[in-house]
Structures are given as C-alpha cells and as structure tokens.
Write a structure and sequence with these properties.
Elements lengths: L5 H6 L3 H17 L2 H12 L3 H7 L7 E7 L7 H20 L6 E7 L15 H6 L18 H15 L5 E4 H7 L3 H9 L1 H8 L5 H6 L3 E3 L14 E3 L4 E6 L3 E6 L5 E3 L1 H11 L7 E2 L3 H13 L9 E2 L2 E2 L16 H7 L2 H9 L6 E2 L5 H17 L2 H6 L1 H5 L13 H11 L4 H11 L9 H18 L10 H15 L8 H14 L6 H12 L7 H8 L1 H13 L5
Length: about 550
C-alpha cells in the first residue's frame, strides 16, 4: 500500500510528510558526500529509490527512528502519542521512498535508571522503598509477576504497543549496557570526558557543577546507581574511580553495565551507538535536545532529525501533570472513545497546545468518521494528506459507522437506554441488515456512548421551556411528521420538514431553530442531524417527544 506514491508524498503538505522529507534530507547528508547526495536525490525524486540504494552502499542500512520510555511507571497517553506520531512519520518516509528503504522503529526503555521514588498506587510499596536507588531491572517486582519492577513495566509497555498494532523493536537499556553494545561509545566518552564536561557544566547550577559527572557508577556494595564525582579516569584500563558511600574509594570499568550515564549524555550516547536518524520529543525538552546534540557531536555522532511537539493542557488550560492527575489516561479515553479517534487526535496540529479532556472525545470520534467518509471520494493528492491515511498507513477502512457518535449519545438519552440491546432494537427497523457482527464499529460506539452518556451527559442535562414561537414551530413540526408514513426511515425526508418549519416560522438565522430543538427536546446546546436522529428513533416516538417538549413536560 506504500509503494508507487513517491510523487504524491513529495508534494504532500501534512506534517508527517514534511517530517519525512526532512528525515530523507538528513539521512542523505549524514551518509553521502555532496556529489553523491545530489545524485541520490535525483534518483529518489524520480521514483527510483531502489536504484539509489543499489548505487550507494551507505544508504542500504535501515533508517532508525526511536522513541524513549521511562519504565518507573506504566505506559500513558504521552507514550501512545509519541509512538503513534513517529509511526506516522515512518510510514510517510516509506511512501516517499517507494517502500524500498528498510526502516526500524526502536522503542527504547531506560530501565537501568535508578528508582528515585515509590510510585503511588503500587502494591507492596515496602519492597520498592527497600530497593530505592537500584536500577529498575534490579528492583523487585511488587506485583510478583516478573523478575523485576523494570521487567514488569517493560512487559506492560510491550503489551500496550502490541495492543495498538504498532510495528516496533523493543530495546532495554540494561541489556544494551550489559551486552557491550554501548561499550565503544562509552570508552569514547571516557576519552573525551573533558569535552563532555565542557558542554554539560555550564548548564548546571553551582552546587551540581561541583559534583557532576556524566558517569553514574553502580555500587558494587549496595547496587545503587550513584550520583558521585569521578575522582580519576584511566583510559588505558577503561575505568573510573569514585568514592562509594558504602565502600570507600572504588574503581570500576565503564563498560559491561558497571556504569550508566546521566540522562542527557545517555541520550547522546544512545543516538551515537544505535545510529538513530529520527526522534521527536516534547516542547519541554528543547534545551535538553540541544545539549544532548552537542554531546552527540563530541562523541563523533550525528544528532537525529526530529521536531518538538506541544504538550497537552487540561480543561483549564494548565499543563498536564502525572503527579497532579489532571490529565486523561489511556484507559479513560478507551472507555469513551476508540483507538482510531485517539490517533486522530494525536495527528491534529502536534505543534499546537490542545486540551486533553473528556470533552474532546465525542468530537474526535465524529471527526474521524467524517474524514473516513471524505477519503472515499477524494482525489489521490487529497487522500494522502487526509489524517486517516496516516492513521491507517495508507489503507483506511472502506466502511466505518453508519451513524455519528453524537447521534448515538442523543439516542441513548432520549431512549433512556442502559444497554446495547435497547439501541440495537432501534436499528432493527432503521438498518434491518445491521448486526453487531457486520457493524462492529457501530457496536463498539454503542458501548462508548452508553458510558459517556452516563458519566458526562446525563449529569449535565438541562431542558428548557419553549417560547411562544418555538412552541408553535414544534406543534407545526409534529403535525408535519404525522402526515408522513409512520415507518419513514429516510432522514432526508424528515430533515426537509425540519428545515421547512424553521423557515415558515421565520427563525433567523436558521440555526436558532435547531438550537431550540436541541435545548427543548434533548437538553443540550447542540446535537446530531435531527432528521437522522428521528429516522432511527422512529417517527411516532419522535412526534411524542416533540409534543412533550412543546407542552413543557420535558423541562418539568
């Protein structure tokens, strides 16, 4: 699905393709001379990326995209967002290069980091308190299911990513350090210790500067990850000397997992050792990216291409904080919305701050559904910039839900439904061929609508009385619907009557008439297309609803 799209991808305007073109230019500059780069670019622009790879051996290595994860806690919304967005860039790059160039998406777990504090809500917290400051892959698992707390959280991360169908390669920091994969770059850092210090020390406060070292040795006595000064360096022996609070003056190799690095030098070392070509990060890490890039260059590496995305805000416009709990968890989103709607939300304007709260979920679901419908009739240049192309790697579904989430929410409320069986009963007449088996998304949305209505809509319902003009219009609408066949399921026919009543009773603008319908009949400030709602709810029941609203019974 990602082949033969090179021309479209080169001209696409959506941000994943902009990033993909930046990534392509970065890799060509990183691996080729100026003359080679020009020649390779001509071939790739001509849709001959396979020839470019065959011609230039340096291009045959996979392009590496990385995302990072701190396993002191469980995967969260930010984890999903970073992997989802990086995957979108990866797929855009594949389209840009005709899917000839191999790519890897590395999900890196910084699980050798020392446990700094006991997370809230964890069972057997005394175990974690006893193991504070040890690497996460040494800290005992309070859940009792894995060899360590780090292994438990890594398993949760992998299950999380697998559940969304992400294609990735998992790497453990502990395994990379202990296996020797990082040794070459760690020895290089030992040689260039002063150059790294010259980069890092000016960024620190006076007290921290006095004791800072990029190396964090693992105490042979306690197993703690120590933040202590490096007293001596022995490049020939590949060792550092430090003062261990539990064992006095101690010498350890910098290889084989006896030390790890402070996080910014660690990030730079990882970019260099893994030859990372692309990594995005939050706006709050702009300075960290800059400093780590300098360290990467000092280590002989090339910093990856990437961009900084904006952070999410709560409903009051404040920065979301895990410790404050003012955000929205993955579990909460998936209780009310679909995974695709979350991907849709992550796609939208990543460089703009957006509210991440329950109130954005219904709109995200319906926007996703609308763009799936739009995709069906769009020309190829429009399709490739449609968000659903990026969400589904160029192969969005041909069918989604026959009705909107907003309509389902209102149907739940008006029908006073408490389970899906009640909702499916309405669809038996409107869509007689529909079943949970052949309309699986509709079935899922019913679950979400029942949950969302119960938790958020029902407590805020506020019906109002109609004024004299609105009452007359409602009575007119009821009379017009009575003139239709009782089994009418054509939403357009009903909608035409709704429009006619609004114009007949001089509502200006016409949306004031629809607002009256929503506020009087549905107890909300906005709602679905009324004709479609009435078609599913049924003309006779809709007439009863309208007459009750006109009498003021609903507000009572």
């Amino acid at each position: 699905m990602l082949q033969n799209l090179e021309t479209l991808a080169r001209d696409a305007r959506s941000w994943p393709f902009e990033q993909a073109r930046n990534l392509l230019n970065h890799v060509l500059k990183k691996r080729l001379s100026d003359a080679e780069r020009d020649a390779a670019k001509l071939l790739i622009d001509a849709g001959k990326a396979d020839e470019a790879l065959a011609t230039f051996e340096a291009l045959q290595k996979p392009v590496v995209l990385e995302t990072g994860y701190g396993p002191s806690g469980l995967p969260h919304m930010g984890t999903f967002g970073e992997v989802a967005r990086t995957t979108m860039v990866r797929n855009a790059f594949r389209a840009l290069t005709g899917d000839h160039w191999p790519t890897r998406l590395v999900a890196f777990s910084d699980d050798m980091d020392g446990l700094r504090k006991v997370p809230e809500g964890i069972p057997n917290p005394e175990i974690l308190r006893e193991d504070l400051h040890k690497p996460l892959t040494v800290v005992r698992d309070p859940f009792g299911t894995h060899d360590s707390f780090g292994a438990h959280n890594n398993a949760r991360l992998r299950a999380f990513l697998d559940g969304f169908g992400f294609d990735y390669e998992f790497l453990s920091s502990t395994e990379q350090y202990r296996s020797g994969r990082f040794d070459e770059v760690l020895l290089r850092l030992l040689e260039r210790f002063d150059a790294v210090q010259a980069i890092m020390l000016p960024t620190l406060g006076e007290e921290r500067r006095a004791t800072y070292s990029p190396f964090l040795p693992i105490s042979p006595v306690t197993g703690h990850v120590l933040q202590v000064p490096t007293l001596e360096r022995n490049v020939a022996k590949c060792t550092i000397v430090f003062d261990d609070p539990a064992g006095g003056r101690t010498e350890v190799p910098v290889t084989g997992g006896h030390v790890k690095l402070q996080w910014k030098p660690d990030w730079a070392m990882r970019w260099t050792a893994l030859d990372v070509d692309y990594e995005m990060s939050g706006k709050d890490l702009i300075e960290s990216v800059r400093e780590s890039s300098k360290v990467c260059r000092a280590l002989g590496g090339v910093p990856p291409e990437g961009f900084n995305y904006e952070l999410f805000l709560d409903i009051e416009g404040k920065k979301i904080s895990k410790s404050k709990g003012n955000g929205l968890t993955m579990e909460e989103w998936l209780r009310y919305g679909t995974p695709e709607s979350l991907s849709w939300y992550m796609f939208q304007s990543p460089k703009s701050a957006k509210s991440l709260h329950f109130n954005v979920i219904p709109r995200a679901i319906d926007d996703y559904l609308a763009f799936i419908e739009a995709y069906k009739t769009q020309e190829p240049p429009k399709r490739i910039d449609n968000a659903v192309w990026s969400i589904h790697a160029g192969d969005p579904p041909g069918h989604t839900s026959p009705v909107s989430f907003a309509l389902l929410l209102n149907l739940v409320g008006v029908a006073n439904a408490s389970d899906k069986a009640q909702l499916w009963a309405y669809f038996a007449r409107y869509l007689p061929e529909a079943t949970p088996e052949n309309e699986p998304l509709l079935d899922q949305l019913m679950d979400r609508a029942l949950n969302y209505y119960e938790d958020f809509v029902k407590p805020t319902k506020a019906y109002r009385l109609p004024d004299a003009r609105e009452k007359a219009a409602l009575e007119d609408l009821a009379a017009r619907l009575k003139a239709l066949p009782a089994d009418t399921t054509d939403g357009e026919v009903i909608q035409n009557e709704v429009y006619a009543v609004g114009k007949e009773h001089s509502f200006e603008p016409l949306r004031a008439w629809f607002a009256a319908l929503y506020e009087v009949l549905l107890g909300a400030s906005q709602g679905p297309r009324f004709g479609s709602f009435a078609a599913i709810y049924g003309v006779p029941k809709t007439i009863e609803l309208i007459e009750a609203g006109a009498r003021g019974d609903l507000a009572a």
